[in-house]
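Hi L.,

As promised, HTH gntR-type domain-containing protein:
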Amino acid sequence: MLVAQRIVEGINKRGNKVGDKLPPERVMLEDYEIGRGTLRESLRFLELQGVIALKPGPGGGPIVQQPDGMGLATAITLLLQFENAPFRTIVEARTALEPMMAKLAADRISEEQLAKLEYSVDNMRENLDDEEVFVEMSRVFHDTIAQGSGNALFGYLIHALLDMLDGSAVGMEYPERHRVATCDIHEKIYRAVAAGDAAAALTAMEEHIDAIWRYEEKHYPEVLDTPIAWGTRG
């Protein structure tokens, strides 16, 4: 673990970017004054965390990668599983977090993110008869709001929570009436964010998350009460 931390420190000091190769093994062995087995275990750990990719063969070696939220989702899932926490734990967390994300996004979202948000709303509207598109565009919408908040922790957290609570994977269905209402409130949130109206964005997201909560509580209480377990998706 200590060697892995030193390797990451070296990546930062050198200013390595995604796709850059790390120094050759012999150089790292000398720099860190460790054995080959320790170095390889450290690199394997960083690979599992998504920090590097180990490219095999001649000219290969460790390549710098951009970590994603998969490791975070796994860690949170395991922590909650050992607490015997139900899926409603995730819904409650979203209720607390997402309105603040929308509020911040109204002040901080980039033009590119705003365009992505609009695309998700338009694509959902144009494909209301396709539940698969609905689920995917809903995820894009909430991911983009989180990223648009300008708070990296929010971005990773909501991505992890959505990965854990994928409604289509835990047996929830969304009738057309629900899809239309969701599209309408997404558009309301989008317009508030686009207008830079933080108070309206927060209020609209509160309305949206509350509606999700009420819908799932009414139709799928047994799903919300199901204990979270690693590998329940699919």
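The chain has two domains: 2-64, 70-224.

Thanks again for sending the construct details.

K.
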